[in-house]
Amino acid sequence: MMMNHATVDGLTAEQAEKLFRPTQPNPVPVEQRGPKREC
User: Where is this region: Disordered (predicted)?
Assistant: First the structure.
């Protein structure tokens, strides 16, 4: 098993996945967000 911050903290892959579902829209209006970054 590959170790990462979730498994080190005792979360299973299934538990970690549930933390990101469902995704939530950003509550900050677009006009108030910082400048866009190039990835």
Answer: 1-39
Cα–Cα distance for residue pair 28/25, rounded to 1 Å? 9
Per-residue pLDDT of the chain (39 residues; tens, 9 = 90+): 566 665 667 778 888 788 887 888 999 999 999 988 887
Q: Rounded to whole angstroms, how far apart are CA atoms 35 and 33?
A: 7
Tokens of 37: 């970054």
The 3-class SS string of the chain reads CCCCHHHHCCCCHHHHHHHCCCCCCCCCCHHHCCCCCCC
